[in-house]
Design goal:
Blueprint lengths: L2 E4 L4 E4 L1 E4 L8 H13 L4 E3 L8 H12 L9 E6 L1 E2 L2 E2 L3 H15 L4 E6 L8 H13 L3 E7 L3 H8 L6 E7 L6 H7 L15 H7 L3 E5 L18 H14 L3 H10 L6 E4 L4 H8 L8 H10 L6
Parallel strand pairs: 3-4, 3-12, 4-5, 5-8, 8-9, 9-10, 10-11, 11-12
Antiparallel strand pairs: 1-2, 6-7
Helix pairs in contact: 2-3, 3-4, 8-9, 8-11, 9-10
Length: about 300
């Protein structure tokens, strides 16, 4: 498995992260087999959030950790997120501390390797977030910190008070959903991809040693579903199929390899609960697309080269 250095060496982790949002639907035996498959294939980084399945995903995962003696907690990297409540976002100190304690209880572990603030909270007080992070770090409950779906200036605001390095920013990114690449490619142009919608977050992350974790890596724009096999993306799928045949992998592996090929050294978060699909995606780590192949996919996804 390809390894990524997070936060200028703060943490070393696999390039492929197992997203746990859909794991709550698996029974105990199926979930145990799935986790075993992931770990055996080098995917020992698991991404949770307190809202996934209303906490059920963390609860079921924790039960497997308790009952499966062959899965050691210290061999895993467990990440969770907090800050989304019913009808609002909440990054208050009280809510962060409460959410982490509840996640630890459900996961049946003493610590999180990584905690992310899930969404930017318009009412966030950076001093409260900093105080919560300090308390969690000093208590040994969280080892590393980051954010999710944040713009650079929102991160900069947090950094005025937060002492810990913010080593991760989790952002949506896929072949068709790639404005953070397109706006740099179409700079100074009057084209659909030219507006900077994220404050140059890609360049900011690279300058500040923040690892981007790409979520929904197979998602079409505007929640249009998976683009793999979608006739609306006929040209893209033709190129994916051709390269998949050339490399002897699935189209999903090629789409994942496109993300991993970027020099920002991103991680990719899977969303599958199927072991066979997970193994397909992991094969992306063995592929290094050529520059020509990367741009061919980019163009096939509908992006121009001005």
């Amino acid at each position: 498995m390809k390894q990524i250095s997070l936060g200028a060496g703060k943490l070393t982790a696999p390039a492929i992260i197992v997203g746990c949002m859909r794991l709550g639907g698996l029974d105990a035996q199926a979930l145990g087999r799935f986790i075993h498959t992931a770990v055996e294939n080098g995917a020992y980084f698991f991404d949770h959030a307190d809202i996934y399945g209303g906490g059920v995903c963390e609860e079921h995962f924790g039960a497997v950790l308790r009952n499966e003696q062959s899965i050691r907690r210290d061999d895993l990297i467990v990440q969770s997120k907090c800050g989304i409540r019913q009808g609002c976002y909440d990054s208050s100190k009280q809510h962060i501390l409460k959410s982490v304690d509840e996640s630890l209880k459900r996961l049946q572990t003493d610590y999180l390797d990584v905690l992310l603030i899930h969404r930017p909270d318009a009412l966030a007080e950076p001093e409260e977030i900093a105080a919560a992070f300090d308390q969690l770090e000093q208590a040994g409950k969280v080892r590393c910190f980051g954010v999710s779906n944040h713009k650079p200036m929102q991160v900069e605001l947090l950094k005025q008070t937060v002492r810990q390095p913010l080593i991760i920013n989790q952002l949506q990114f896929s072949l068709p959903v790639s404005n953070m690449v397109a706006n740099g490619m179409e700079v100074n142009m009057d084209t659909p991809g030219s507006p900077d919608r994220d404050g140059s977050v890609l360049d900011y992350a690279r300058l500040n040693h923040m690892t981007i974790q790409a979520w929904s890596p197979f998602q079409a724009p505007n929640w249009g579903g998976c683009f793999l096999g979608d006739p609306c993306y006929e040209k893209l799928n033709q190129v994916l199929d051709e390269l998949a045949s050339q490399y002897g992998v699935s189209p999903a592996a090629i789409a994942a390899a496109w993300i991993l090929r970027h020099p920002a050294k991103m991680q990719l978060i899977t969303g599958t609960a199927k072991a066979s699909r997970l193994k397909e995606i992991i094969q992306a780590c063995d592929i290094c697309l050529t520059r020509e192949e990367w741009y061919r996919l980019y163009l096939a996804a509908g992006h121009p080269l001005p």
